[in-house]
Amino acid sequence: AKENNYHPNLVAQSLKSNKSKSIGVMLSSIPNNFYAEVINGIESIAYSKGYHIIITQSHESEEREARNVEHLTWRSVDGLLISLSSETTDTNNLQQLHEKGVPIVFFDRVSTCINTHRVKADNASGAYHLTKHLLEEGYRRVAQITSPKELSITAERNAGYVKALTETNIAVDDRYIKYCAHGGMHLNEIEEAVNELLAMSEPPDAIFTASDRITIGCFAILHKKKIAIPGQVALAGFCNFSSPELFNPSLTTIRQPAFEMGKVAAELLIQLIETKRPVTEFEDRILPTELDIRNSSKKDSCK
To answer: Whole-angstrom Cα distance, residue 289 to residue 261?
Structure first.
């Protein structure tokens, strides 16, 4: 076989075994520190199990997500790993695929409409501890810039934010919560949220940002406006940027276990693909987050 440069016909093999040894991955955007780590986690497991991964991006579009999922199924992937777009409100297409026997595992941005495995960070706990830290530093007007209301991560992170405020006897003021329709994919939607907050009669003294893109975008906008961090406005948020200590000031962040999330999601999907029996019990895997306190939120760094 080696002398004749023979290679197995993978298409023929997949027709015979009804397996393509490939996994489709649907996520919002590859140029994203968090998702880059997730992909590495997925690939580490897929490679070790002999699977290839095909990655597609929704770019936060429900229509594009549906078309890409359809394309992946045309390519006869053995299963799908999905993080929903910020626009997605209808998962009927995924439900239909699931009912036809296509294994699906959700990660990060999940849906509860389909009975399957879900893997996500402990968003509520992360948001709670970050907001609690800001309150303990003495900030009292803590705003939140977050993703669309429809996303699972938005509701979970908002729950942690509200819990911390309530425990500190601070009323939740909806005017201090700003939603980015595309999850911060467009810088102008972050800038609009920042401008609205700064224009308030009592502007926030701290901003909690609920995603990688929103955190980094908000930091850049405040710098452009020459707003001192944390002297005028403290900043802290979810961010898997590789070196937050290189920012000036260094960024206080909630770090999500993105690599581990990708690994766990891939492991659960391959189990579904390779099982010989129908699976009726599914898991919600909730992975812990980590609060790293740095200068962007510390009042003593203003001195």
So the answer is: 11
